[in-house]
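Weekly puzzle thread! Below is a chain. First person to post its structure in token form gets bragging rights.
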Amino acid sequence: MKSLKILISAILAGFCIGLGGMLFLAMDDKVIGASLFSVGLFVICTNGLHLFTGKVCYVFQNDRSFALSLPLIWIGNLIGTAGVALILRLSRAAALAEKASSICEVKHNDSMLSLFLLGILCNIFIFIAVDGYRNNQHELAKYAAIFLGVVGFILCGAEHCVADMFYYHAAAAWTPDLLFRLLVITAGNAVGGILAERLRTFVAK
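Winning reply:
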């Protein structure tokens, strides 16, 4: 039952990121798009949903069962993003798929090292967002952390594995190569999030 709840929560989190990704694709202005993307993480944080990039940051603060749940969360996020992409592709919003294809093309032409490093960078921003929401005492600071973390990673071109799941689905761009690239980005996200959390914990002691 616990695993089922985690899976459903992860699917909902993936759906939220898909909504954020759809808003980003719908905007011609990148700054506005990045700002609206933060809606997805806002819903996730305020409802305690399971997002891989947020949860992986705290793997060393929890027991073994937490670490073992991460692949399930990743799969749930994958399913959730597929749901939004399906709605997009079956509606008049399907024109946005062309923008998603352009995003996927950039990833296809990038090096594995670049994707890995941009994955690390992305989850440093995500840690700023989720940890700021968790630990800031001031209400305004909690929501500012979410907004700034999301806008930051998007504007600097960092790679977020769950957002990329949505773009792959929206563009119907799945290939063995892009799947491997997604796994490289996922590894980068894990390293970045864990590194940020460990350094914060070390400095705080």
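Puzzle host: Confirmed. Bonus trivia for everyone else. Residues 176-204 form the longest helix (29 residues).
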